[in-house]
Design brief:
Helix content: 25-40%
Strand content: 15-25%
Order of helices and strands: EHEHHEEEHEHEEEEEEHHEHHEHEH
Bound molecules: zinc ion
Oligomer: single chain
CATH topology: TIM Barrel
Number of domains: 1
Shape: globular
CATH class: Alpha Beta
Largest sheet: 9 strands, mixed
Structural class: alpha/beta
Number of strands: 15
Number of helices: 11
Length: about 350
């Protein structure tokens, strides 16, 4: 009998408009997550936004931060610590940071034109290649100092905006990436800025080889799509999970982590509850105030969906989280405690694929 190998992934970044305190929104919640995971023998994978890191580094070099503030240095130290403690670090890119202005006092002007990764080609013929190459070299440069055999070969696109992906996948093949983990099968989103459409992705398989389209199996590709797990949740359960969030007053953000934004939509509580009382495709998300019951539900859905595979092999299941939305540490700990009692659940990183093919 195989096991569910849960891969806990965390997008490691401040907010998309550059706001948010690095200590409160990134460093502290990462430490908190790791401490909890270590108590229950779970591994994490941090998808680190290298565009943001490199912008922090440049602003520091030009002496524009006050009072010795050096966020890149803090990130640098934490990434080494993450790997020393047996967790993993892989590549994430938010290209709006490729064209930034630092306005002082933690205010940034980022270029929304590059919000979606494929738009990076507007910066020049080799811009996408160079971005991936620099990102990979940057993480390997930091981590090889303490782990010489470290390799950056797993990727997740910022805001999941990888499409149209043909050129991106070509570059990833050229640079020997092994895994993309951006797809959430069955989900789509388009607000004019963020765009993805993963409807019809073939998630009857737990993962699949890809060549020039992330959604479909193509055995000619040496890259693998390992999707973020998602499941259809009946309306009654959607309602139950919402009500639990409210009754338990589960925070949506870590203490002291705030987003500065002028167009944040505020909706009434009632609207929020009743808007969602219908069946929904939901991702396996262990942050954003997700209650224990939803995490358990998602895990059980994964077990039943892939039961035929589990008869003979281990099945990797990717969960997603964000440091800046990790306020539900009590719910997460309850979940980790529950998984420890379940024989069929273990935690893993993408290194799963080095030992299991
Ligand atoms: Zn991100």
């Amino acid at each position: 009998m195989g096991k569910l190998k849960i891969i806990l992934t965390v997008d490691y970044e401040v907010f998309g408009n550059g706001s948010g305190c690095v200590d409160r929104c990134v460093i502290d919640p990462s430490e908190r997550m790791m401490q909890l995971c270590e108590k229950y023998n779970a591994k994490m994978t941090f998808f680190v936004d290298v565009c943001e890191y490199l912008a922090f580094k440049k602003v520091k070099e030009s002496n524009k931060f006050k009072d010795g503030f050096d966020p890149a240095q803090k990130i640098d130290e934490q990434l080494k610590d993450i790997v020393k403690r047996g967790h993993d670090v892989q590549l994430h890119l938010h290209p709006q940071w490729l064209d930034y202005k630092y306005l002082g006092n933690n205010n940034w002007k980022l270029n929304i034109k590059y919000w979606r990764l494929p738009n990076v080609k507007l910066l020049g013929e080799n811009a996408i290649y160079n971005l991936f190459k620099n990102g990979k070299d940057c993480l390997e440069g930091i981590i090889k100092k303490i782990k010489p055999d470290y390799c950056c070969n797993v990727f997740r696109a910022g805001a999941l905006c990888i499409q149209p992906e043909e050129e991106i996948l070509k570059v990833m093949h050229q640079l020997n990436f092994k895994i993309d983990s951006t797809v959430i099968a069955g989900m789509k989103f388009n607000d004019g800025t963020t765009f993805y459409d993963f409807t019809n992705a073939m998630d009857e398989l737990p993962h699949w080889n890809i060549l020039n389209n992330v959604k479909f199996l193509n055995k000619k590709g040496s890259l693998k799509e390992v999707p973020i797990f998602s499941a259809s949740v009946p309306g009654i359960k959607v309602l139950k999970f919402k009500v639990l969030k409210i009754l338990r007053k589960i925070p949506f953000k870590p203490i002291g982590c705030k987003q500065e934004s002028n167009n944040h939509k505020k909706r009434s509580l009632l609207h929020k509850v009743f808007r969602s009382v219908k069946s929904q495709r939901r991702k396996f998300n262990f942050c954003d105030a997700t209650p224990f019951e939803e995490l358990k539900y998602m895990t059980e859905q994964a077990k039943s969906k892939y039961k035929d595979y589990l008869r003979t092999q281990n099945v990797p299941i990717v969960a997603i989280g964000h440091t800046k939305t990790f306020g539900n540490h009590k719910e997460f700990e309850k979940y980790l405690r529950w998984t420890n009692k379940k024989e069929y659940i273990e935690f893993s990183t993408y290194h799963f694929f080095n030992d299991n093919t």
